[in-house]
Amino acid sequence: MYPIVYLNGQYLPKEEADLNVADLAILRGFGIFDYFRYADGKPRFIEDHLDRFLRSAELLDLKMPASRDELRDAVHELIKRNGEPSGGIRFVLTGGYSPDGYTPTNPNLVAMAYPFQAPSAEQYEQGVSIHLHHYERQLPEVKSIDYLEGIRIQPMLKAKGADYSLYVDRDYNVRESDRSNFMIVRDGVLITPADNILLGITRKHLLRLARKLDIYVDERPVSVNELKNADEVIICSSTKGAMAITKVDGKVVGDGKPGPITRQLMEAWTEYVG
């Protein structure tokens, strides 16, 4: 984390930015967040991320203590005060200090800046391995701070030699990862779920980019069987951009290398984000 933190309208050294232990984020894991990258001092897709952050607060009935303009100003000021041209910004809105340990009160608003470490060049060149895991997130359209399941299964993923998981629902449709969305390619068509998921900002812009490249896009459910028999599989997020999945539960996808549409999106993404 970079040294200066935003807390409820103040800019403080991170050592002085304290929250009371009565906060529902600590007691119950109740709160929301959003995260986005910035480069050359410019935040990436900031308006999209503010839209999602404000929407998550609305869906959990959390009163946002700052206006949209104030949130945007805090981002730019945090970048300026930390003096680092690139990194990531994380907003967190907590449930507030609860007198009974259960009832939300006035939320605390925190923003932190971090150094950004990109995935390895090897992962982009060779792709990553994923494990299918049966799990459905509560309120998937909310970017909640509750990552209990994603963190709990990390030792299992390591034991299986998987880099990431993809969540499978009760109908054996694949929805999303804990921190990413995914897409498949079948017969030249880019297919991705659109319901009961967190609609990622990178996902949104990759689909927009695909259409500009005349790649046909189909937003619909993707079954486990369809995923395992896809020509290409892509995982995407703010930290990854677009990256190939080349192995699903030990089964090789395609020829085991990033496919042509995946490579096309990966190469075009660099120019798209500037």
UniProtKB/TrEMBL annotation:
Pfam families associated with the record: Aminotran_4
Enzyme class: transferase
Recorded superkingdom: Bacteria
GO function term, MF aspect, one: branched-chain-amino-acid transaminase activity
Pathway terms, separated by semicolons: Amino-acid biosynthesis; L-isoleucine biosynthesis; L-isoleucine from 2-oxobutanoate: step 4/4; Amino-acid biosynthesis; L-leucine biosynthesis; L-leucine from 3-methyl-2-oxobutanoate: step 4/4; Amino-acid biosynthesis; L-valine biosynthesis; L-valine from pyruvate: step 4/4
Keywords: Aminotransferase, Pyridoxal phosphate, Transferase
Biological processes annotated in GO: amino acid biosynthetic process; carboxylic acid biosynthetic process
InterPro entries attached to this UniProt entry: Aminotrans_IV, Aminotransferase-like, BCAT-like_C, BCAT-like_N, Class-IV_PLP-Dep_Aminotrnsfr
EC number of this enzyme: 2.6.1.42
Catalytic activity reported: L-valine + 2-oxoglutarate = 3-methyl-2-oxobutanoate + L-glutamate; L-leucine + 2-oxoglutarate = 4-methyl-2-oxopentanoate + L-glutamate; L-isoleucine + 2-oxoglutarate = (S)-3-methyl-2-oxopentanoate + L-glutamate
Keyword Transferase recorded: yes
Cofactors named for this entry: pyridoxal 5'-phosphate
PANTHER family linked to this entry: AMINO-ACID AMINOTRANSFERASE (PTHR42743), AMINODEOXYCHORISMATE LYASE (PTHR42743:SF11)
Family, as annotated: Belongs to the class-IV pyridoxal-phosphate-dependent aminotransferase family.
Name of protein: branched-chain-amino-acid transaminase
